[in-house]
Amino acid sequence: GQQVMQIPQYQHVQEGEDFTTYCNSSTTLSNIQWYKQRPGGHPVFLIQLVKSGEVKKQKRLTFQFGEAKKNSSLHITATQTTDVGTYLCAGRASGGGADGLTFGKGTHLIIQP
Amino acid sequence: GAGVSQTPSNKVTEKGKYVELRCDPISGHTALYWYRQSLGQGPEFLIYFQGTGAADDSGLPNDRFFAVRPEGSVSTLKIQRTERGDSAVYLCASSRHQTGVGELFFGEGSRLTVL
């Protein structure tokens, strides 16, 4: 079945440093979504990317969808303590088949003041 | 309701018992998803409903797990003969969109502990 892998699993940064997490799918995706999960909380939607090569920005966050629609990245500029949490990507395989969104294991962002 | 509501928030049961977990989605959302999440892991897909029907149940781990959504709103996840390995947070999410397009709204989850 479809697999979604994220790296790194953990990332420690100093406050103010940049952060990037990468998401790779074993199959071509119709779309990819990113969620943030705070410790003890539930996933909260950040953004959805649909088009090949798409780039979207939300303030200090930049999201990219690869040309082949099999990978994606999330980059945070100048991290703040409020960015702490787990960043999850989720994708749905293109071409029909299973309809459930498959999540990666997430990248846990730890920020040291 | 304002958001996705899940009950109970915590459930402790003994190995071999039967458990039901309830999800009340956002009003008007036709799509409903069940996931389970173990500590430090991402949500693992279990089943997806579009209206009353299970559009994709490929994530249910075995026949001890079953879910229903008889009126296209509230859903119940049923686990028979629980095992210690079933311990996890069971998350429900709803969406107004079809088939994986559009934002999923998650509930707070039901934490299941099987002793």
How would you describe what is shown here?
The complex is a heterodimer of chains A (113) and B (115). In chain A, a hairpin with a 5-residue loop joins strand 7 and strand 8 (71-76). Chain A has strands at 4-7, 10-14, 19-25, 29-37, 44-49, 55-58, 61-65, 71-76, 85-93, 102-103, 107-112. The termini of chain A are far apart. Chain A has no helices and eleven strands. The radius of gyration of chain B is 13 Å and the shape is globular. Chain B has 115 residues and is mainly β. The A-B interface holds A 1, 4, 6, 30-31, 33, 35, 41-45, 48, 88, 90, 92, 98-106, 108 and B 33, 35, 40-45, 47-48, 50, 55-56, 58-59, 91, 93, 99-109.
- Shape label of chain A: globular
Count up the helices of chain A.
0
Low-confidence stretches of chain A: none
Number of helices of chain B: 0
What is the helix content of chain A? under 10%
Give the topology string of chain B: H per helix, E per strand: EEEEEEEEEEE
Count of strand segments of chain B: 11
Low-confidence stretches of chain B: none
Beta-strand percent range of chain A = over 45%
As a percent range, the share of helical residues of chain B equals under 10%
